[in-house]
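Structural prep section.
Before we set up the soaks we want a predicted structure of the protein with adenosine-5'-triphosphate in place, mainly to decide which crystallisation condition to try first. Input record follows.
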Amino acid sequence: MRAGVLGGTFDPPHLAHLAIGAAAKQALHLDRVLFVPAGDPWRKAGREVSPASVRLRMLRAALEPLPWAEISAIEVDRPGPSYSADTMEELARESARGADWWFIVGDDALTDLPNWHEPERLLAAARLALVWRPPGDPIIPGEVRTRFADIEARLDVVPMPPLDVSSTALRERVRSGRATSILLPEGVRTVVDELGLYR
Ligand code: ATP
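Run finished without errors. Recording the tokens verbatim:
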């Protein structure tokens, strides 16, 4: 069994999140792709984040058309800051023996890795799937290489063309009354409008 985990705040979930899951599934021949919303996204402390229940609802709406995509509420259900190392250890422990796990990251998340909580534990529990725009090999930041000497051996590349979309930009679009077109899945937009989010 080969499984990938895409952790995120998903406030809101958007087209790039879906594309990342699809690209990882294809590139790594994953049997399972789990989207894992952070219960307490401690790396985004100091800014307002929608309640976990709302982000879960949006994620369900986003993934509804994708039969291969799963949601795990493991971080929402676990009290305290959502550490990816805890999540990956727990998922790996609970899954069948012989399962291979990947933790999917964009290049911004890879750059931030040294600042995560006990990233060595994360790297011991899962390989990294690095979403990288082709062509060319990924650029691994110096700080990441220094801290994790074997990082290249622990990493697989998931090619994906760049998609200029972020939750931040979408929140701003909603706030200023601009269209969100296909960047924000239709079902998610419905939830956003129903709850009056990001105004
Ligand atoms: P925000 O703008 O609120 O910081 P975000 O759009 O980066 O949010 P997250 O939920 O924080 O979304 O992201 C989850 C994961 O998706 C992270 O690993 C992030 O690197 C990746 N990701 C988000 N948007 C993109 C994108 N456009 N291209 C590649 N990776 C992305």
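Observations: The beta strands are 2-8, 32-37, 69-71, 100-105, 127-132, 155-159.
Flagged for discussion at group meeting.
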